[in-house]
Write a structure and sequence with these properties.
Layout: H1 8-23, H2 34-41, H3 45-57, E1 61-64, E2 68-71, H4 78-84, H5 91-115, H6 120-129, H7 135-145, H8 149-161, H9 172-186, H10 190-209
Helix pairs in contact: 1-3, 2-3, 4-8, 5-7, 5-8, 5-10, 6-9, 9-10
Length: 210
């Protein structure tokens, strides 16, 4: 039986490791362009761009406008190493990943309420005007809006190892639900927003079990 292909995120990390070792790229050295990475991995540039954004948020790379993408202190970055060793071979590991990610999302809601983040207007506008939005996009942007960089880095890693199928396109019901959640956050009601998040996940799991 052929094993499943690695997720794009971990594949890019592997490619970066090879670049460091084979081409001896120093810390601060320039990485290949989006086009070159897309050709090497045989994926679209938009996919590479999104993956690189996640890597930048994790602190693994640095993008400089007009100059390119540069290597951060990747060899000393431990978050990737820690989670990469947490192999999802049993149900308990999967549950742990799910529970931790869920806790981070709930905490993000609380922190956005406390911080009165201006990013909510961007989220709301995207929900109303953009057609092709994936379910996980909203969750990621919500965690980013919290401003908690450690939570954000851990969530991004958990997202790559999570088995939750949030990579499908949003339905109109999803959009309506998220807009109501944003309204609760704007009203300062973090508890209501957290309940709405839990209700959405429960509905999604119910649909998958049918």
């Amino acid at each position: 039986m052929t094993s499943a292909s690695p997720k794009l995120f971990t594949e890019i990390v592997r490619q970066l490791r090879q670049l460091i070792e084979q081409e001896r790229i120093p810390i601060g050295g320039k990485l290949p362009s989006e086009r070159e990475l897309a050709e090497r991995l045989e994926v679209g540039r938009s996919t590479i761009r999104e993956a690189l954004r996640s890597l930048e948020l994790l602190g693994l790379i640095e993008t400089r406008r007009g100059e390119g993408t540069f290597l951060a202190d990747f060899r000393n970055h431990k978050l990737v190493e820690i989670l990469a060793t947490f192999i999802l071979k049993d149900t308990k590991s999967t549950i742990d990943i799910h529970s931790t990610r869920q806790a981070l999302e709930k905490q993000a809601i609380h922190e956005v309420v406390e911080g009165k983040s201006a990013s909510l207007s961007v989220l709301k506008n995207a929900l109303v005007t953009t057609d092709d939005i994936q379910q996980e996009w909203f969750l990621k942007e919500l965690v980013i809006a919290s401003g908690n960089r450690l939570s954000m880095k851990i969530w991004l890693l958990l997202n790559e190892y999570s088995s939750r199928p949030f990579r499908t396109e949003m339905t109109e019901e999803d959009r309506s639900h998220w807009l109501e959640l944003i309204e609760s956050i704007e009203a300062g009601n973090s508890q209501q927003a957290q309940l709405q998040l839990a209700a959405w996940e429960q509905r999604l799991r119910g649909e998958l079990d049918r």
